[in-house]
Design goal:
mainly alpha; Recoverin, domain 1; 2 strands; 61% helix; transmembrane helix
């Protein structure tokens, strides 16, 4: 783990024309933002004399690009203009830096924008700059005294917050592995030089501030679960977060239940010949069953939050172990696979409740006396198979929803971190809500046709003289009779409830979190 010689060799290849203030996000000259550079005056490796002050390429000079080019050429072992995993392994070993194959793959994957399996020079430079920005955020969080240096006490306290308890001797050993000048403290340059060629996609400090599936409830529960740090798992804070999220979801769904029931009615009954508008839909519900009828189906929708969240979280943690990653947190692809499988397991476990929710939302006044009565009628008249109608499109819908939601959220998160994060990874309430709402909305939009077909299949047996169509047949019927827009019936009330759902769930979540003793950081 400790390669002080290798890190010094790597460190010498980076531009050293900037001050420490620049690295902390403050440009004393008023010119440029952070760049992967060191504050000391550069030394000419041939003569040992000071090189005159020279701006890096961000400021218009060639110094930084030249140094990065040297490092790139060292790592590009076969000289083909690209760094693959094999090149990276051999090149880093030459520099005395040893990384596992898993870590090397993560580095290449993180920077490989054109997906050709290797890093060209521009991708390599961009990866180092993006990675350095994350390292700087972590350095700022560790530097509790805000003096530009990290000592053993700060390391002990910060690792203790993440569930890792060290003695002072162990903390000093960590310091010695990074300390190049013998001061027993680590400045920004020593921290960066040691960690720069080590992958870190999901740094715990960032994870703490960027949870969104636990916080935000938009009525759909197939979003990829949030990551929890080791400390949150050890202290039991994870279940407090989940309970707070479940309570927030219950309040949020109850407040927006009329819009959700209207969406179901429009998905099932609206057509070219039976145009159902938002206003007329609400009037129709009130005339048929009174104001209370606006909340039909909400009870089972709230009840299923608990078991679904618990099953999904447990399945997610088990699948992470089965994947075999030795990392505390997963990369985006691993999260997508783990989250999608966990969502499929959770949905399979509670899917009969989804069918009951649809049937109860569509019921006429007096048709069922409650949830159990509805389940009894379905079982007696249609059999057990009725509780899994629409199961296939529901499972298929998990893939575009989870994939697009995760991809959009990670893109927005990383964009914010690169552009605006300076002293902390905390985005603030507005940015968190905006990113979470945007990503969830994109996921819903992509999976909506499958959700509509699922709802119609769940409702088919309850419709008088309605044909029992398969998923593909129902798709063809909708497109033939209503056109492609028919696959988006009910989209308007669905999107209308997104903003109030997110706002309500966040406010309630924060209140419940405080009540359960979860301390905000």
């Amino acid at each position: 783990m400790i390669q002080p010689q290798g890190t010094r060799l790597v460190a010498g290849l980076f531009c050293q024309c900037r001050s420490a203030e620049t690295h902390a996000g403050v440009d004393p000259g008023g010119g440029c933002g952070p760049a992967p550079v060191s504050p000391q005056p550069p030394q000419d490796s041939r003569s040992g004399s000071d090189i005159p002050d020279q701006a890096c390429d961000v400021c218009g000079g060639p110094e930084q690009e030249h140094r990065l080019k040297v490092l790139f050429e060292i790592l590009d072992v076969n000289g083909d203009g690209g760094i693959c995993v094999n090149d990276l392994s051999i090149g880093l070993k030459k520099l005395g830096v040893h990384r596992t194959e898993h870590e090397l793959r993560r580095m290449v994957t993180a920077g490989d924008k054109d997906l050709d399996g290797q890093l060209d020079f521009q991708e390599f430079v961009q990866y180092l700059r993006d990675h350095e920005k994350k390292l700087r955020l972590v350095f700022k969080s560790l530097d509790r005294k805000n003096d530009g240096r990290i000592d053993s006490q700060e390391i002990m306290q910060s690792l203790r917050d993440l569930g890792i308890h060290l003695t002072e001797e162990q903390a000093e050993e960590i310091l010695r592995s990074m300390d190049k000048n013998g001061t027993m403290t680590i400045d920004w340059d020593e921290w960066r030089d040691y960690h720069l060629l080590h992958p870190a996609d999901n740094i715990p400090e960032i994870i703490l501030h960027w949870k969104h599936s636990t916080i935000l409830d938009v009525g759909e529960s197939i979003i990829v679960p949030d990551e929890f740090t080791a400390e949150e798992k050890k202290t039991g804070m994870w279940w407090r977060h989940l309970v707070a999220g479940g309570g927030a979801g219950a309040v949020s769904r109850t407040c927006t239940a009329p819009l959700d029931r209207l969406k179901v009615l429009m998905q099932v009954h609206a057509s070219k010949t039976n145009s159902m508008r938002i206003g007329s839909g609400f009037l129709q519900m009130i005339r048929e069953g009174g104001v209370r009828s606006l909340w039909r189906g909400n009870g089972i929708n709230v009840i299923k939050i608990g078991p679904e969240s618990a099953i999904k979280f447990m399945a997610y943690e088990q699948i992470k172990r089965l994947i075999g990653s030795n990392q505390e947190t997963l990369g985006m692809t691993e999260r997508f696979v783990s989250g999608s499988l966990a969502g499929a397991i959770a949905q399979s476990s509670i899917y009969p409740m989804e069918v009951l929710k649809t049937r109860l939302a569509l019921r006429k006044t007096g048709q069922y006396s409650g949830i159990l009565d509805c389940a009894k009628h379905i079982l007696q008249r249609e059999g057990v198979a009725a509780f899994y109608k629409g199961y296939v499109p529901n499972m298929l819908g998990i893939i575009p929803y989870a994939g697009i939601d995760l991809a959009v959220y990670e893109t927005l998160k990383n964009s914010w971190l690169q552009r605006f994060a300076t002293d902390s990874a905390d985005p603030g309430v507005f940015v968190l809500l905006a990113c979470g709402t945007t990503s969830s909305t994109c996921g819903q939009l992509a999976s909506y046709p499958l959700a509509l077909v699922r709802t119609r299949m769940q409702a088919q047996a309850s419709l008088p003289a309605g044909p029992q169509l398969s998923m593909s047949a129902l798709f063809r019927l909708i497109v033939r009779t209503e056109g492609p827009l028919g696959l988006y019936r009910g989209l308007a009330p669905n999107f209308m409830k997104v903003v109030p759902s997110v706002s309500i769930s966040y406010v309630v979540y924060e209140h419940l979190k405080r009540s359960l003793g979860v301390q905000s950081r």
